[in-house]
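Query structure, 523 tokens:
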């Protein structure tokens, strides 16, 4: 009698965890047959959050959520029990939290005078409106691997709309016109409320504690095996009459070589590429160091496979230009309420009810967000945590004569205080931890058809790809939804399940006329 089939998931990010959950929930697999191989010490990938009040909390970033989109994400988390609210799912818990804490930002853009800028008008000229409409209506084949700047005039990038849109979604002018167009369609509902971020939904805590931990706990309860500190370095694969399949995994487990045979009928899932690869942390005294940007980890494995098999994409499109995909984020742990109180008075928003406050004239295009507190479980009531980032970390600051990438935490606080016209005493005792990420927006770089592989590559019998660097029609990268949708798609296709992946909600269809009318009305 043959042993039951096994599934091996390479990478422990949200895509792999979601794939494991879909194998169990919809594929009828036993958790004991599933193994997650993660190079780091903990699961969660880019959805991370850690630290303590003494050393400071850290989040590399956070992803925007909405209830109008994210069909696959809420389909998944409607099945995952909350670990804080008995009898509720994570989805129910999140909805309930947002019913109590509505988003309505009153200080979306702040100028050099520390004045809240009027943002009701998007600031479009007639030329901007026509060009934006033309880009919105273009098809992807026509746009190809062009940049946003190939389609919109320089004046567009000085409008209030662009400053709000680009900082909400982390777009740069040189990013892919195709991805920008997809965002216009996917998040059309946000177009009319971008100045308040009213459509944004937040988790109770940071996304590691509110999404990853409950999902991980559920998977472990199902018997899923997790192998931390395991870096898969090579896949063996062979051809057959009906295609090709993976036959073995080579890895380093706790630094020791390991060989894992993959039997016929076993499944292998790979998160190809990583937007937080080569990221590094600094301190109050030290900037985040520049790491070797040569592709390794998930990038190296994808590069190796793509060179051996057709149809597996071109990773070099995304990982060879870190200067075009990097930014620096920072997490601030505060020991007194002074800063939060000052920001509440200035912005008109209590923490957790606003959104990104973007410093419009910052050379770094710095933004900060004050989440509802506590932002971490067991965070003391006397401690507050906020997060921020800069889209132009290679530029010299307005108040600190250094590039953002070269600043330590104390210097980042000095720059922030300068823009907000605050005395540094209001940030006394704060711990600011910088985080440098060379590939954080690499999935936005201009690309051509075929640069991103399909979740189920041509000829594959047992192998699928997951995450931000696969091709999914209509959906938008740099979202939790894209990772979860890729996992659901891969599992359903490999198992040939009859159940359909939830479709992308066609907001753009029934709002198209409204979009055109809105563009004509905006001044």
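Result returned for the query:
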């Amino acid at each position: 009698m043959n042993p039951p089939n096994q599934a091996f998931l390479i990478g422990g990010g949200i895509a792999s965890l979601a794939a494991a959950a879909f194998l169990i929930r919809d594929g009828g697999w036993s958790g004991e047959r599933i193994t997650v191989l993660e190079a780091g010490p903990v699961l969660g990938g880019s959805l991370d959050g850690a630290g303590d009040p003494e050393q400071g909390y850290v989040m590399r970033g956070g992803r925007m959520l909405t209830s109008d989109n994210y069909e696959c994400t809420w389909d998944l988390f409607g099945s995952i029990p909350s670990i804080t609210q008995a009898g509720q799912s994570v989805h129910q818990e999140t909805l309930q939290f947002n019913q109590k804490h509505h988003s309505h930002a009153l200080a979306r853009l702040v100028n050099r005078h520390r004045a809240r800028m009027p943002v009701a008008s998007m600031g479009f000229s007639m030329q901007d409106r026509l060009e934006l409409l033309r880009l919105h209506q273009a098809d992807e084949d026509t746009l190809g691997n062009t940049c946003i700047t190939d389609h919109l005039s320089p004046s567009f990038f000085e409008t209030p709309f662009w400053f709000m849109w680009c900082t909400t979604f982390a777009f740069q002018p040189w990013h892919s016109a195709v991805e920008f167009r997809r965002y216009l369609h996917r998040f059309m509902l946000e177009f009319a409320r971008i100045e308040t971020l009213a459509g944004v939904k937040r988790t109770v805590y940071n996304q590691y504690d509110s999404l990853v931990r409950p999902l991980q706990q559920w998977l472990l309860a199902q018997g899923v095996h997790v192998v931390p500190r395991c870096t898969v370095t090579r896949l063996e694969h062979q051809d057959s009459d009906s295609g090709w399949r993976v036959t073995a995994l080579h890895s380093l487990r706790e630094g020791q070589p390991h060989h894992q045979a993959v039997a016929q009928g076993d499944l292998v899932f790979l998160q190809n590429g990583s937007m937080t690869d080569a990221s590094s942390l600094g301190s109050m005294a030290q900037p985040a160091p520049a790491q070797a940007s040569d592709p390794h980890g998930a990038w190296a494995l994808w590069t190796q496979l793509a060179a051996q098999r057709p149809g597996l994409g071109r990773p070099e499109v995304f990982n060879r230009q870190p200067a075009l995909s990097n930014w620096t984020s920072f997490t601030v742990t505060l020991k007194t309420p002074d800063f939060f109180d000052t920001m509440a008075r200035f912005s008109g928003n209590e923490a957790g009810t606003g959104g990104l406050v973007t410093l419009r004239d910052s050379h770094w295009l710095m933004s900060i967000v004050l989440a509802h507190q506590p932002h971490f479980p067991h965070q003391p009531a006397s401690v507050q945590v906020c997060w921020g980032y800069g889209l132009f970390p290679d530029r010299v600051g307005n108040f600190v004569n250094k590039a953002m990438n070269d600043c330590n935490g104390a210097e980042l606080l000095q720059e922030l205080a300068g823009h907000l016209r605050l005395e540094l005493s209001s940030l006394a005792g704060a711990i600011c931890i910088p985080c440098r990420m060379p590939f954080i927006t690499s999935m936005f770089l201009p690309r051509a058809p075929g640069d991103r592989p399909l979740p189920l590559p041509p000829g594959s019998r047992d192998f699928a790809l997951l995450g931000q660097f696969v091709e999914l029609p209509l959906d938008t990268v740099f979202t939790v939804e894209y990772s979860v949708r890729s996992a659901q798609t891969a599992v359903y296709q490999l198992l040939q399940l009859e159940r359909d992946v939830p479709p992308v909600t066609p907001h753009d269809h029934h709002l198209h006329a409204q979009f055109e009318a809105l563009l004509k009305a905006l001044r």
